[in-house]
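Hi support team,

I'm filing this because I wasn't sure whether my run with pyridoxal-5'-phosphate finished correctly. The job status page said complete, but I'd like someone to confirm that the output block is well-formed before I use it downstream. Pasting the exact inputs I used:
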Amino acid sequence: MASPGDRLHTRVVHAGSPPFEDGVAPVNVPVVRTSTVRFASEAVRASLHHRREAGEPVSMYGRHGMATHRALEAAIGELEGASDVLLAPSGLSAISLVFIALLSPGDHVLVQDGVYGPVRERVEPLLTRLGVSFSYFSASDGVPAALLRAETRLIYAESPSSFLYEVIDLPALAAFAREHSVLLAADNTWGAGLLYQPLALGADIAVQATTKYLGGHSDLMQGAVSTSNPQLARTLRDTHDALGLSVGADGASLALRGIRTLAVRLAQHGRNALEVARYLQSECSAVARVFYPALPEDPGHALWRRDFKGANGLVSFALRQASREQASAFVDALRLFGIGASWGGYESLALVAPQSRLREHSYWRGSEPVVRLHVGLEDPVDLIGDLRQAFRHVLQ
Ligand SMILES: Cc1ncc(COP(=O)(O)O)c(C=O)c1O
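And here is everything the job wrote out:
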């Protein structure tokens, strides 16, 4: 049985809290802004240099971060169940770090076809230029055995997937990767660590855009890469160092602040989103399909129940017999939902999913336009009222 203080929600509230000094301590971790680190002596500097060269995350310079960064790494480590966490200036830079650190010319990578779009649009061209080849697999087809090559070094997945929330069988993918000595990395931005823990399910690396739910207030760009494999941690850290990836102390402090309230925010996002998803299901003359794994009708529901501890505020839906122009007019007619490409903040957002992204994602072959909602912390009655008036205004 877990002892007091052992449960995840408790640990993320307290991880990295400052120790007492002279009997007192602030509740929050101080924001340690610095470029320059001073050393008590040359001997101390030499010893720290030696430890850093051996792979320890000690700070010799502002780029390495200081107390605020160490506290944030500790908190993300709790969320992901990871021994090592590397911070990056955005979610995309965290993803790129994984690819650049682990792949060399001649290597091959297998990427799930529903991943965050810029993996295909930005990371693939960069890595292709460096001699890495890419194949995309459909998670609906099970493990990608037919696409595996002798040069395959990495499988990269995201569960649930972007826009359509296809839940994948990560433990099965992890077993397949292990059997073939291939590394498995997973984007865990949707699950944020509290709802999903890819490392516990067998992945070697978890990536998060902490920009989203960890930040939680739409005022932060940041990413994190987590692992519990010391050898991988060393490889990632060396590349992180070479790229000079650095996160400001103010940003680290904002992410820590967000983490302290993550559990209550996510629970409310999940409750509100479920109400909105149920409402959308009831609008069957206008809505062809609702994508939300917490709905019992969602094809990923059983896997979601098995592997996840909850759902977040992302809900997508396909509009029945509507043109793309009507979908845009629907989004324009929303008053409470802002139009925005991000998610994870306290506010509700909507956009029309890019058709090109949907075409690349084999999970769903419908041709209807898809609207993605991020359901925020407003009262769901008001959110549903806003959706209802937009349907009336545009489609009915
Ligand atoms: C699933 C997922 N991963 C990664 C990212 C990239 O994060 P960032 O915008 O911080 O670069 C995003 C951004 O939307 C995302 O949705």
